[in-house]
Amino acid sequence: MKMNGRLLCQLLICCFFASMAQAQTRRNILWFDATANFKRFSYEDSIKNILDKCQQAGVTDVVIDVKPITGEVLYKSKIAPQMLDWNGDKRAADFDMLQVFINEAHKRNMVAHASMNVFVAGHNHFDRGVVYTSHPEWQSLNYTDSGLVPISKIKTKYSAMLNPANPEVRAYELSIVKEIVDMYPTLDGIILDRGRYDGIQADFSPLSQQLFEKYIGKKVANFPSDIYTYKGKQREPGVLYKEWLEWRASVIYKFFADARKVAKKANKKIIFGDYTGAWYSTYYEVGVNWASKKYDPSKDYNWATKKYKQYGYAELLDLFTTGCYFFEVAKSEVNKGDAKAARTEAGMETAKSPLYTVEGSAELSKDLVKGAVPVYAGLYVDQYAKDKNQFIKAMKMCRAKSDGVMVFDVVHIINNGWWDALTEGLKGNL
């Protein structure tokens, strides 16, 4: 079989970028949210212009969100509905945003990842998404102080999260992982986001009860009170609380194991990545153990069983970015006044601690994965909206205390006109 010169050249280029992406450990990662940038990235020239700025600033990797929280996708899918409009703006159905990003990133020697919000399929503030149309039965059933409530009815939550234990949900999400990697053979990586439960209140459906009973090998006499009960608005653990936490961690672990197999089968060179919050001490609330199997949380935390460590999934990842979403950068800043950034992420608490700083959370993340995967400490730019210098300092701290930095999101860099700050933070020393 003869191969023409142009095809051979393209093949060699693809192989080069795949090997370069895998070998790289130091990364400056910039995230591109789907809905916040919907209009802007509906045009090729706009993508090229922003990537030029990224290259000049020192960005090495771009993460393109192709499955936002509605459950729609930003490419021509045979599985999920395609998002062709958002907030009054429309996009041409044949515009392949992700392929443009991949091609243009590679021209600028940058690595291109696609991200997908996994266990979520609805935006509660817009009553939009898969749980509002085709699959309302997939949504999480939350155990609140008012009883069992479908998450689409809890309008204080903007993400209509799914039940990760539901086999139909898992199969659906895995099929999307496969589709993305199959459709874009020159894509360097795929990063899973919201690969978790909604929170400690989720999921208390009859299906989850059945699956939990199968896991522990016995019937639950009093469900859900054997898991926990409410005294006013305060939760009080029941007799099976720790086992419930362990089971939820096993659910997420097994999904990540399956997702990795699916992605690697579609493209053995794909970088398999994940985003979580860095606040490990309370991240069990969302059913996630992102640590290494070598770390035993039962020695440090009373919520963890001896078996909980088996569901640490750091070893399943090629890339791990963790949200060090705190205004305070250095641990020494903790006692210099009240925390300035609202802590609203899933599983977060409001306590003051050196661990709730960029420095402390980055160090903890590196420690708990035990070298199993490179760690990229992440920042939420909007937390520094009134203090550019603190943002610059935070980027430098991430780079000093982890294998690089992840900045969320490019929309805040654009809106604030902070390309100079991004450049200084990505290139300067602490």
- Tell me the fraction of residues in β-strands, as a range: 15-25%
Summed over residues and divided by their number, the pLDDT gives a mean of 93
Structural class from helices and strands?
Answer: alpha/beta
Overall CATH architecture: Alpha-Beta Barrel
Pfam families: DUF4985, GHL10
Keywords: Hydrolase, Signal
Organism: Chitinophaga skermanii
Signal peptide: 1-23
Task: Describe what this molecule looks like in 3D.
- The chain has 430 residues and is an alpha/beta fold.
- It has one domain: Glycosidases (TIM Barrel, Alpha-Beta Barrel), CATH 3.20.20.
- The chain contains 11 helices and 16 strands.
- The strands form 5 sheets. An 8-stranded parallel barrel has the order 1-2-5-10-13-14-15-16, surrounded by 7 helices. A two-stranded antiparallel sheet has the order 3-4.
- The longest helix is centred in the middle third of the chain and has 26 residues.
- It is globular.
- The relative contact order is 0.11.
- It holds the Pfam family GHL10.
- It comes from Chitinophaga skermanii.
- InterPro entries: Divisome_Glycosyl_Hydrolase, DUF4985, GH, GHL10.
